[in-house]
Amino acid sequence: MEITNVTEYQAIAKQKLPKMIYDYYASGAEDEWTLQENREAFARILFRPRILIDVSKIDMTTTILGFKLSMPIMISPTAMQKMAHPDGEYATARAASAAGTIMTLSSWATSSVEEVASTGPGIRFFQLYVYKDRRVVEQLVRRAEKAGFKAIALTVDTPRLGRREADIKNRFVLPQNLTLKNFEGLDLGKMDQDVKWLQSITTMPILVKGVITAEDSRLAVENGAAGIIVSNHGARQLDYVPATISALEEVVKAARGQIPVFLDGGVRRGTDVFKALALGAAGVFIGRPVVFSLAVAGEAGVSNVLKMLRDEFELTMALSGCNSLADITRNHVVTEADKFGVMPSRL
Asked: Which GO terms describe its molecular function (predicted)?
């Protein structure tokens, strides 16, 4: 069967993977309302395409934290990728590098920072939880820096793990042949303390991942974050938080252009990428499409997901009358808020 879009990988991965592993990747917290909403909220945003514009040359390149990327589509940290495929994080790293984009390695990876670095050149970020034992964090950060990682994505929405009922039912455990190169014992302090402390031990820029409110957006800016990733942890933490695409504009406005804001969660189409950029995101991160395509076809699967999203995004830009990312504006989309007159008229 020819795969024609990103979502099709999930159904094939479901047949291929053991139930416990598929459910671990696929499930969300509690009622999984936010899990569904992360997708459905995109469907409620409509386009206002402009026509009769020469779109014969489309430029999707962008610069993120000073790094030139082929497109504003990057890879989120997802845990334990060797459960999906024996090559795990190695395959993801190679696919991201070949596509000219960024891979973020999870703290809970089944491959170490050194192993991922050994796959060859590439721009890589390292996702970090803040553990009680700061000596552990310090060692991790120094190892990531030494291995050539370029930024830290500090995950701040996990003071405790969310309740994922599929994992409880399945009695989820990491398969015996795999090990986490990192550890339990999550304990988050305050964002200001954590960002400031991390800045004292590394020169890597710090992105704060897990922000969905204006208040926390301002806090991130005030405490020297290099960027914000609007994320609800793939709907795996607190259920009934808004979809990230619904929270994006609030966070962007509060950041006041001082630092870039990215979106993570629910991106499955090039149209989703365009909508996020129109609402102020500097780029998007994809998570589940990576592990599902990895499960189905290894590195080739991840490469194909990145290519499909890139091609769809390019087509969306062309059909909307945009030659470059700078051409994508708020006027290209209509949200629920606009329809109900919550937002002032833009004309």
From this structure: (S)-2-hydroxy-acid oxidase activity; FMN binding
Over residues 295-339, the pLDDT tens digits come to: 999 999 999 999 999 999 999 999 999 999 999 999 999 998 888
Question: 6 and 269 in contact (C-beta within 8 Å)?
Answer: yes
| Cβ neighbours for 178, distance < 8 A, ≥ 6 positions apart | 80, 82, 83, 110
Token pair listed for 66? 């000073």
Active-site amino acid positions: 233
Please name which of 185, 201, 198, 182 lies closest in space to residue 133, comparing C-alpha atoms: 185
- Tokens found for residue 303: 């490469």
24 appears as a binding residue in the annotation: yes
78 annotated binding-site participant? yes
Residue 160 annotated in ligand binding: no
Question: How far, in Å, CA of 245 to CA of 251, rounded?
Answer: 10
The reply to whether 233 sits in an annotated binding site is yes
Cβ partners under 8 Å of residue 103, min gap 6: 74, 75, 92, 93, 96, 97, 116, 122, 123, 124, 125
Provide the phi-psi class of 341: left if phi over 0, else alpha when psi is between -120 and 50, else beta: left
Task: Identify any residues that bridge with 46 across adjacent strands, giving them in sequence order.
Answer: 334
Tens digit of each residue's pLDDT (9 = 90 or more) over 18-29: 999 999 999 998
